[in-house]
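Input C-alpha cells:
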C-alpha cells in the first residue's frame, strides 16, 4: 500500500512507516522521557512547554554535573518535540489521530480501551491508528527541524520508484518475441 503525500510529493509506504513510527513511540520516545528525568504522566498531566529549566555550572567542580545536565536538557527537548508533534496531529471525530496516539503511547492504554473512546470498530480503529502513525511520522520531520533536534530519526519510509526500462533492457529476438 502506498499513500501520496501531496505536500511533499512523496510516495509513502504506509505499512512500513506506521511500523517504524510504532517502534519509535513505543521504545525510543520513553527513552527520551526517562533521559529527561520525566515521566509520561508529566507530559500528559500538565502543560508542557518543552523548554528545559535553566541551570548553569558555577565552578569547575560542577563540570561533570553540567555535562549530565546538558544530556538531560537534550532528552527533554527531544521528548517535547515528540509530544508536541503528537499534539499537532488531527483531532476530530473523523480523524481522531491525536486521541489515538496520546491514549496509546502516552497514557499506555490497550487498543481495546481506545476503540470505544474514539468510536470506531476494531478494523476501522486499526486503519485510523495506522494513518495516525503516518501523519505523526510526516509531521515529526518538520517539528524536529523547527526544534533543532536533528538526531531524531526519520520515520517516513518512501517507496522507491521503479526504474524505467530502456530499449537496451528489452531482449527481443528477430521475430519480436522476448527471449529468456
Amino acid at each position: 500500500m502506498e499513500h501520496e503525500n501531496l505536500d511533499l510529493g512523496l510516495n509513502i509506504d504506509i505499512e512500513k512507516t506506521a511500523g517504524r513510527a510504532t517502534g519509535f513511540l513505543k521504545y525510543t520516545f520513553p527513552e527520551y522521557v526517562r533521559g529527561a528525568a520525566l515521566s509520561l504522566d508529566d507530559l500528559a498531566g500538565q502543560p508542557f512547554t518543552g523548554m528545559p529549566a535553566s541551570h548553569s555550572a558555577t565552578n569547575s567542580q560542577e563540570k561533570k554535573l553540567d555535562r549530565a545536565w546538558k544530556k538531560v536538557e537534550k532528552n527533554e527537548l527531544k521528548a517535547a518535540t515528540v509530544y508536541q508533534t503528537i499534539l499537532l496531529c488531527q483531532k476530530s471525530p473523523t480523524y481522531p489521530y491525536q486521541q489515538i496516539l496520546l491514549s496509546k503511547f502516552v497514557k499506555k492504554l490497550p487498543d481495546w480501551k481506545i476503540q470505544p473512546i474514539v468510536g470506531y470498530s476494531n478494523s476501522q480503529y486499526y486503519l485510523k491508528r495506522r494513518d495516525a502513525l503516518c501523519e505523526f511520522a510526516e509531521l515529526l520531520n518538520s517539528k524536529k527541524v523547527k526544534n533543532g533536534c536533528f538526531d531524531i530519526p526519520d520515520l517516513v519510509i518512501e517507496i522507491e520508484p521503479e526504474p524505467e526500462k530502456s530499449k537496451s533492457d528489452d531482449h527481443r529476438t528477430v521475430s519480436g518475441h522476448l527471449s529468456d
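The chain has a mean pLDDT of 83. Residues 95 and 128 are 7 Å apart (CA to CA).
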